[in-house]
Design goal:
Blueprint lengths: L2 H11 L4 E5 L2 E4 H17 L7 E5 L4 H12 L3 E4 L6 H11 L1 E6 L1 H8 L11 E3 L17 E2 H7 L13 E6 L9 E5 H15 L6 E4 L6 H12 L3 E4 L5 H11 L3 E3 L2 H9 L13 E4 L6 H10 L4 E8 L4 E6 L19 E2 L4 E5 L12 E6 L6 E2 L3 H7 E2 L2 E10 L5 E6 L3 E4 L2 E4 H8 L5 E11 L3 E10 L7 H9 L10 E4 L14 H9 L6
Parallel strand pairs: 3-4, 3-5, 5-6, 6-7, 10-11, 10-12, 12-13, 13-14, 26-27
Antiparallel strand pairs: 1-2, 8-9, 9-19, 14-15, 15-16, 17-18, 18-21, 20-21, 21-22, 23-24, 25-26
Length: 524
């Protein structure tokens, strides 16, 4: 399989269908594919050869989608970059990937200007949103190329037709518990993942997908390639904004979207939510964490035509491993018992839970989640030892802990690095967090282990109250004692008046919360 194959299928089956819809009009597949071929020709004219890495640092846009296909069209490897990183982190990423050409929008260009040390490719930057014939700003760099000018002036080239095990993209992990790594994904990996998304989200050529999550993240990428493969339409907001998303859903008749639970809450709480016609929405993919019952009840009321599909995965599996169909995302009835699970293995995946000795765990037994399938990565870029540790016997060992029930539904219990060892007992942070989430006044929480001279670690809960609400530390401890074994309960509770730090996928950055406690102690 190859990424451009899906694009060409859409051109053949739905040539006059919209690949992009917006308030300003639509662009058809018949119009879009020649643009992509010319952009690929422009990259080739700039010296981009098959296998070279092309960086992409921009907010969501039609140009972003074009770049995702133009890079493989000319045989290159795309490297989507997280604009939430610091300039220094981005500089190290670009050097690690060996990026030769950078494609950036004005905000990405501003970040690039702050990079230190400045990567060698800095002088070879394509600027999205620049108009044909535009003159680069003084000091912007002699080789700053206007994006639209490049598309207009370049001759189209033939598809390089790289595919199969050829490298298609380098996707850097969010690094929620460790340093970011470049994940090597092949054409087969990404195409297999798109097929998983098509099956689980029922994508068709009638689908209209709203890009509201960052397009640099593979959680969005699953729908990006699935919708294109089926000849569906894409709509865009540059970055998540509740008002803009509500407006787009109503105006553009969006059928599919993806939000983490925090985003869903923001949509529900927006004052315009109930004044909008959101009846077109049919599928909402959510991940990062299970959705709270009260949030789910409100969402089902606001969006009665939508099914909420819970996905679990990671960059290393391109990104889907399991899916929980919308029938289980309910708070009442016989199906509600599965709502806290991540669902069953995706169409092209196998999922097992392993004991420490490598044996398969029994139903209900907690162990490390392992995944096998054509969507599993080729490996980590320039990290052979870490690749060997993660890929064993053809299985991706996720570092996540969980169990499978008798019906094959996967329940997460935490990360291997998120397991707290206190006084010889293991405490899974997610179990404590699920209990704290039931406290009405709590907006969000994170549970971590911090150093303790006697027990090794002790349990700390960091809690953010809902706006206008007050949470007392002792009340949190007392609530946990009523629902958990004593050793699992927080010994300390820290109340914060600001949101917890999150990754681009909406996952809480536990490493940032731990560092103030562990780094000064010089502890493990």
């Amino acid at each position: 399989m190859r990424l451009t194959q899906g694009l060409m299928r859409a051109l053949a089956t739905n040539p006059d269908g919209a690949i992009r819809i917006s308030r300003d009009g639509a662009r058809s597949y018949r119009e879009a594919v020649p643009r992509i071929a010319r952009l690929a020709g422009g990259l080739r004219a700039m010296g981009v050869a098959p296998g070279d890495r092309v960086g992409l640092l921009a907010f969501n846009s039609e140009a972003y989608l074009e770049c995702l296909f133009a890079a493989p069209w000319c045989g290159a490897v795309i490297v989507p970059m997280n604009w939430r990183l610091t300039p220094q982190e981005l500089s190290l990423l670009m050097q690690d990937a060996g990026i030769g050409v950078l494609i950036a929008d004005p905000d990405g260009l501003a970040l690039a200007r702050e990079m230190s040390p400045r990567p060698a490719c800095w002088a070879r930057t394509i600027l999205i949103d620049a108009v044909p014939g535009a003159v680069p700003e003084p000091g912007a760099g002699a080789d700053l190329v206007p994006y639209e000018g490049l598309v207009a002036a370049s001759a189209p080239i033939r598809d390089a037709e790289r595919g199969g095990e050829d490298l298609a993209g380098l996707f850097y992990t969010a690094g929620t518990t460790s340093a970011s790594k470049g994940v090597m994904l092949t054409h087969d990996n990404i195409c297999a993942n798109a097929i998983n998304a098509i099956a689980s989200l029922q994508v068709t050529e009638e689908s209209v997908y709203l890009h509201s999550a960052p397009m640099f993240h593979l959680a969005d990428g699953a729908s990006t390639f699935a919708v294109t493969m089926m000849g569906g339409a894409h709509a865009y907001v540059p970055r998540f904004d509740a008002a803009a998303c509500l407006d787009s859903i109503e105006t553009l008749k969006v059928t599919n979207a993806q939000f983490v639970p925090t985003m869903i809450k923001m949509l529900l709480d927006h004052p315009d939510a109930r004044r909008r016609d959101l009846s077109s929405l049919r599928r909402v993919l959510y991940g990062a964490s299970p959705i709270e019952d009260e949030t789910l009840r409100r969402a089902l009321t606001l969006l009665p035509n939508a099914r909420f599909v819970h996905g679990y995965g990671m960059t290393e599996v391109s990104s889907i491993a399991t899916m929980l169909p919308g029938r289980y995302s309910v708070t009442e009835g016989p199906d509600a018992a599965k709502r806290r699970s991540c669902g069953q293995a995706a169409l092209l995946c196998e999922v097992e839970v392993r004991r420490p000795d490598g044996g398969r765990a029994d139903p209900g037994e907690i162990g490390e989640i392992a995944i096998r399938g054509p969507n599993v990565m080729k490996g980590y870029w320039n990290r052979p030892e870490e690749t060997a540790a993660a890929l064993r016997d053809g299985w991706m060992h996720s570092g996540d802990l969980g169990y499978l029930d008798e019906d094959g539904f996967l329940f997460l219990t935490g990360r291997l690095k998120d397991m707290i060892k206190t006084g010889g007992e293991n405490v899974f942070a997610i179990e404590v967090e699920n209990v704290i989430a039931e406290i009405p006044e709590v907006a969000e929480s994170a549970v971590i282990g911090i150093p303790h001279p006697q027990w090794g670690e002790t349990v700390l809960a960091i809690v953010v109250p809902r706006p206008g609400k007050t949470v007392e530390p002792q009340a949190v401890i007392d609530f946990c004692r009523a629902h958990l074994a004593p050793y699992k309960c927080p010994r300390r509770v820290e109340i914060r008046d600001r949101p917890l730090p999150v990754s681009s996928a909406g996952k809480i950055l536990k490493r940032e919360l731990r560092d103030p406690y562990w780094v000064p102690a010089d502890a493990g």
